[in-house]
Amino acid sequence: MKKITIALLVLTILFLASNYQNEEVIIPKDSIRFRVVASSNTEEAQTNKKIIANNLKKDISSVLKNSNSLEDSRKTLKSNINKFKANIDNTITKNNINESYSINYGNNYFPEKVYKGVKYEEGEYESLVVTLGNGAGENFWCVLFPPLCLLEGEDKKTNDVEYSSFIKEVIDKYF
User: Fold this and answer.
1) Quick one: how far is CA 20 from the chain centroid?
2) Strand, coil or helix: what is 3?
3) Which of 7, 39, 63, 158 has the smallest set of CB atoms within 10 Å of its CB?
């Protein structure tokens, strides 16, 4: 009887965990998005997009480090457009990228996107958009405020990672 109860408990936990992972949350429209659109879907264009997005994320993370509000983030991004342009120019030169680009801070169109389980509706959103070439390729996309894309890039200054599984712990405890 004990094994049946435990098996039912494990199945319930698995069911709840799988349903939890599929849950979508909608972020309010008062977010600031970030997008880098590649010139095409060739391997080279997609690589260029990633290089530019990664280097630009470092600058953006740095300038938004102490920003605590939408208005503060908005003001900081607008006042650093020239810094972002210089970053892109340097990245293009350093990596021998043969791409023109445009950078725009304002309301820009975004298709529907799901990022880390969070659903963003299609529409016009306040955003920082870098378009490489004619912008006909796949894009890098994330949210600057709240800082959803910048969190994963933070250096935690540690190489120690400990993984655990609640389900494995329950099974080990009772079997």
Assistant:
1) 20
2) helix
3) 158
Integer Cα distance of 30 and 10 in angstroms:
40
Closest CA to 39 of 130, 126, 121, 117: 130
Lowest mean pLDDT among 17-21, 45-49, 112-116: 17-21
**DSSP letter assigned to residue 116:** T
Q: Rounded mean pLDDT of the chain?
A: 78
What DSSP string runs through 65-103? TT--SHHHHHHHHHHTHHHHHHHHHHHHHHTT----EEE
Domain boundaries, position 89: 26-151
Radius of gyration of the CA atoms of the chain, in A = 21
d(Cα 46, Cα 51) in Å, to the nearest integer? 9
Sign of CA dihedral 42, 47, 48, 54: positive
Length of the chain: 175
How many domains in the chain? 1
CA dist list (Å): 124 to 72, 108, 110, 129:
21, 5, 6, 12
